[in-house]
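Retry 2 of 3 after timeout on previous attempt. Resubmitting structure tokens to design endpoint.
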């Protein structure tokens, strides 16, 4: 997993819970990297899991909620660093529908070794988008946070519903339906 996720997670924890929580999280989590991350390098996903588990156990926040809030937190970073990628989109459904066919292709140009989830559009209307999300990492609620931040970025009211039974555990697939 790319380091920018780790550096942003540490920033998220600091802004949400304070620097003392960051220090304790790094000290008490089993981190091969010792909590030192570079945005462009790759790190083992288990380190993020370990830090998330620590923060959730100490704060009492459910991992789903923490991941969704983290997704919302990361969105401004992504559009700030890569605004040229999303400039062509005029509404949130178009942007989200373009994740696989456009945005992930641009990400691969920057980070060849990035291991990205897949997003397959299965239905699209003016006010609704159905997509299948597949990831072996199970960051469903991080993706939801990013999608909700996308809606907010475009000043569009809407919701994201999740059908976790859609693809079953064997292929790590979830269906999102975004309605605006």
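Retry 2 succeeded. Sequence:
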């Amino acid at each position: 997993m790319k380091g920018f996720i780790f550096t942003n997670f540490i920033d998220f924890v600091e802004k949400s819970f304070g620097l003392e929580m960051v220090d304790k999280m790094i000290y008490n989590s089993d981190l091969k990297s010792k909590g030192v991350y570079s945005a462009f390098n790759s790190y083992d996903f288990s380190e993020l899991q370990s830090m998330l588990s620590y923060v959730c156990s100490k704060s009492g926040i459910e991992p789903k909620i923490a991941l969704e809030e983290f997704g919302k937190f990361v969105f401004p970073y992504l559009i700030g660093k890569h605004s040229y990628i999303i400039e062509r989109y005029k509404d949130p459904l178009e942007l989200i529908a373009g994740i696989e066919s456009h945005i992930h292709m641009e990400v691969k140009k920057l980070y060849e070794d990035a291991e990205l989830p897949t997003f397959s559009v299965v239905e699209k209307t003016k006010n609704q988008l159905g997509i299948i999300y597949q990831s072996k990492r199970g960051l469903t609620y991080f993706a939801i946070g990013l999608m909700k931040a996308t809606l907010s970025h475009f000043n569009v009211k809407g919701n994201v519903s999740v059908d976790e039974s859609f693809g079953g555990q064997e292929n790590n697939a979830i269906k999102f339906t975004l309605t605006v």
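Attempt log closed. The first helix runs from residue 3 to 17.
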